[in-house]
Amino acid sequence: MSVLTDPQIAAMNVEFESLAPADSIRATAHLFGDGAALSTSFGADSMGLIHMATRIKPDMRVIFIDTGWHFPETLEFMQAMTARFKLNLQVFHPQISHEHFVKQHGYLYQNDPDRCCAINKVEPMERAIQGVDCWISGVRRSQASTRVATPNIERRPSGIVKVYPIVRWSTKQIYDYMQAQDLPHHPLWDKGYISIGCAPCTQRIGAGEDERAGRWRGQSKIECGLHTKI
Q1: What is the pLDDT of residues 135-193, one digit of tens each?
Q2: What's the rounded Cα separation, in Å, for the pair 224 and 143?
Q3: What does DSSP assign to residue 218?
Q4: Are 54 and 85 in contact (CB under 8 A)?
Q5: Could you state, in order of their start, the residue ranges of all structural domains in the chain?
Q6: What is the pLDDT of residues 87-125, one digit of tens each?
Q7: In the beta sheet, which residues pair with residue 61?
Q8: C-alpha to C-alpha distances, 160 to 117, 202, 213, nearest whole angstrom
Q9: Distance from C-alpha of 57 to C-alpha of 79, rounded to nearest angstrom
Q10: CA distance 156 to 186
Q11: Residue 190 CA to chain centroid, in angstroms?
Q12: Considering the entire predicted model, what is its pTM?
């Protein structure tokens, strides 16, 4: 475990601004070792960051939250990528099964999406990062207005250090990296789905819309809470 002071984190935030994503991951892996873990939703461009991280640390813990509401294509993609790249995948589920959730709450995402996310995403992630010192995330500034001020590294209110290696990259940059490395992308990307989450709350985006415009369309919601509440 590497304990970083707030001044050290502030200095690293400045340093990481000029580092290539792989170098940020390398520095993070050196500092935190097995205390670092990467989260992924196995979304459209997810294999870019996963590939970078596991080339540097092949046994890097990869956390996936199976909400019970994912597209079938997402779960198939997760299984295929885990086998192909021999990922050290750790899957976490909500405390209540999908069937019992629907029986108890119905289609909660329709009338209270924040609570739906809290039960099916946020709470499982809180369990997933217990014992984790550093959480590596694929959040990028260009994804949405809520993310434009995301730093390179920060300490979250929970105390965990969070690193965003590709925070400065555009969609084109991550796509170009995946093309150069011959990495597969989520099959729904070819159908116009750019930001892919739970199936009921994900739609295609139109020309000129930001990447997350298809999430919770028609509702005053942009974030699920994973990157705002933890």
Answers
A1: 999 999 998 888 999 999 999 988 999 999 999 999 899 999 999 999 999 999 999 99
A2: 14
A3: T
A4: yes
A5: 6-201
A6: 999 999 999 999 999 999 999 999 999 999 999 999 999
A7: 37, 88
A8: 21, 29, 29
A9: 20
A10: 29
A11: 20
A12: 0.94
| Neighbour count for residue 198 (Cβ, 10 Å) | 22
CA-to-CA dists, residue 30 to 27, 33, 43, angstroms? 5, 6, 27
AA identity, residue 217: R
CA distance 10 to 151: 10
Q: Active-site residue numbers?
A: 224
Dist. CA 128–CA 144, nearest whole Å: 25
For residue 206, give the amino acid letter: G
Strands 161-163 and 153-155: antiparallel
Tell me which residue of 109, 110, 161, 156 sits closest to 135, measured CA to CA: 161
Going by CATH, does the domain composed of 6-201 fall within 3.40.50.2300?
Answer: no
Q: Could you give the 3-state DSSP secondary structure of residue 60?
A: coil
In angstroms, rounded to a whole number, what is the distance separating the alpha carbons of residues 125 and 3? Answer: 22
Start-to-end Cα distance in the chain: 20
For the cut 90, the answer to whether the pLDDT of residue 3 exceeds it is: no
Give Cα separations from 91 to 22, 68, 105 (angstroms).
25, 12, 23
Six token digits for residue 148: 């434009």
C-alpha to C-alpha distance for 225 and 4, rounded to whole angstroms? 25
Tell me the residue ranges of DSSP E strands in the chain: 36-39, 61-65, 88-92, 134-136, 153-155, 161-163
